[in-house]
Design brief:
It is a single chain. With about 100 residues, this protein is α+β, with helices and mostly antiparallel strands. It folds into 2 domains: about 55 residues, no CATH class; about 40 residues, no CATH class. The chain is about 35% helix and about 10% strand. The chain has a two-stranded antiparallel sheet with strand order 1-2. Helix 2 runs antiparallel to helix 3. It is elongated.
Length: about 100
Amino acid sequence: MPLLIWMGNFEKEMVIMDGLQRITAIIAFIDNEIPAFGHYHNQYEDRMRMADVTLSINVNDLKTRKEILKWYIEMNSGGTPHNIEEINRVRKLLDEEK
């Protein structure tokens, strides 16, 4: 699902390529929809200080769907890789790009 993000003095359509589940889980925890370590956000007595929270986001200026698919494969086939079925699914999409 495309995500419209306002940055400075311009707007640009952006797409979350990876990490949507993580972002969704963070928002659900803050909204008291799911627990973390057995407790909901509103059950913690400590105040959440944003200075203690780090969330890294990589923004790429990829021009074509082919570039996006190649980037996805590169990012997700090293380190803790996605399963081979997912990588092969995206490789097939890449092969179909003209």
